[in-house]
């Protein structure tokens, strides 16, 4: 006996959304598609648990403002999800509901009602940590005694100055870092959704890159990965675990003089760069471009600061002794039209 879904059109649209629309039309990568799939599956799990609606009995009308709001509350109460996770699930459901509307599976009124659902406020602001400029300086200096000092310093310097995700940095090829006419450099990233962005780098980073290549890439083969490790005698892409081990050593060394140093992890450098740019008065849209955020709402997190953090934000990176790199004073690209155009993909 063949089992039929109550709303076969919805089942068909789910399959098309995952297998055709996201990868083919929207050019989304596997991680993004997996996220959509997981969010929709969670919503189905909620419907089964709370409304006894299964994947066979659910209908397009179950994707409603009321159900999604209650789903968000369920994520918090039953799964102990924090605000960013809940908001991520909401964003995925909004995306799928937009597709349902385009395919006439839900009405415009239903879709507009779903769009009106507000994100959950993040109550974890007090736990939001980043490194001070001096902390970054000490962490970079702590690599001086490492066996692979040249590599480790360049890797961490690039993580900080670019503000990139760890996988973006570890996926770089030599051809992705290019000198500019003024002795600085641009780094080309291909982030989430294979989106291309260009981030300007300082003269100091370019100098470190040249020193690094002299030791680790003497042949300068452009297609080679910038960072690699050896496994079974073969060069392979460096793993994030390798980076974590480097940071464990840095943390132990810095805590000898600064026991209050926060725990080091690769994403902390991205967060730190964003906060330093924000404190220097860089507009949020520019920071959003810098970080490769597809939605500026993600970047607005850095503006949701406590009164203490706001006072900190008044202390701009205004002179060289408050800068990690000697030529990184305030926001050095603030009035550099060419650099901003490269950053925004206009050049």
TrEMBL record:
Stated family: Belongs to the 'phage' integrase family.
GO MF annotation list: DNA binding
High-level lineage: Bacteria, Bacillati, Bacillota, Clostridia, Lachnospirales
Pfam families: Phage_int_SAM_1, Phage_integrase
Top-level taxonomic group: Bacteria
Protein name: Tyrosine-type recombinase/integrase
Primary role: Site-specific tyrosine recombinase, which acts by catalyzing the cutting and rejoining of the recombining DNA molecules.
Swiss-Prot/TrEMBL GO biological process terms: DNA integration; DNA recombination
PANTHER family found in the cross-reference section: PHAGE INTEGRASE-RELATED (PTHR30349), TYROSINE RECOMBINASE XERC (PTHR30349:SF81)
Keywords: DNA integration, DNA recombination, DNA-binding
Domain Core-binding (CB) as annotated: residue spans: 5-101
Domain Tyr recombinase: 126-315
């Amino acid at each position: 006996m063949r089992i039929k879904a109550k709303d076969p059109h919805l089942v068909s649209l789910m399959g098309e959304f995952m297998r055709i629309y996201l990868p083919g039309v929207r050019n989304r990568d596997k991680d993004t598609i997996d996220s959509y799939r997981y969010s929709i599956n969670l919503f189905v799990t909620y419907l089964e648990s709370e409304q006894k609606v299964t994947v066979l009995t659910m209908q397009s009308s179950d994707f409603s403002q009321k159900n999604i709001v209650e789903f968000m509350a369920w994520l918090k109460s039953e799964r102990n999800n924090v605000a960013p996770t809940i908001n991520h699930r909401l964003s995925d459901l909004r995306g799928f509901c937009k597709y349902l509307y385009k395919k006439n599976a839900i009405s415009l009124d239903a879709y507009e009602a779903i769009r009106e659902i507000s994100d959950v406020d993040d109550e974890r602001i007090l736990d939001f940590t980043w490194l001070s400029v001096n902390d970054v300086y000490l962490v970079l200096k702590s690599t001086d005694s490492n066996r692979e000092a040249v590599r480790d310093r360049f890797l961490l310097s690039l993580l900080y100055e670019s503000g990139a995700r760890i996988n973006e940095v570890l996926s770089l090829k030599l051809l992705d870092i290019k000198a500019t006419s003024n002795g600085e450099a641009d780094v080309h990233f291909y982030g989430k959704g294979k989106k291309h962005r260009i981030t300007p780098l300082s003269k100091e980073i370019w100098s470190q890159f040249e020193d690094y290549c002299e030791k680790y890439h003497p042949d300068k083969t452009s297609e080679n990965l910038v960072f690699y490790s050896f496994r079974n005698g073969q060069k392979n892409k460096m793993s994030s675990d390798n980076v974590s081990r480097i940071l464990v050593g840095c943390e132990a060394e810095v805590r000898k003089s600064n026991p209050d140093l926060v725990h080091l992890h690769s994403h902390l450098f991205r967060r730190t760069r964003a906060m330093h740019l924000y404190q220097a008065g860089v507009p949020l849209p520019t920071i959003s471009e810098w970080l490769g955020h597809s939605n500026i709402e993600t970047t607005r997190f850095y503006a949701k600061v406590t009164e203490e953090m706001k006072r900190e934000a008044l202390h701009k990176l205004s002179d060289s002794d408050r800068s990690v790199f000697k030529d990184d004073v305030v926001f050095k690209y603030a009035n550099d039209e060419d650099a901003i155009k490269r950053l925004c993909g206009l050049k």
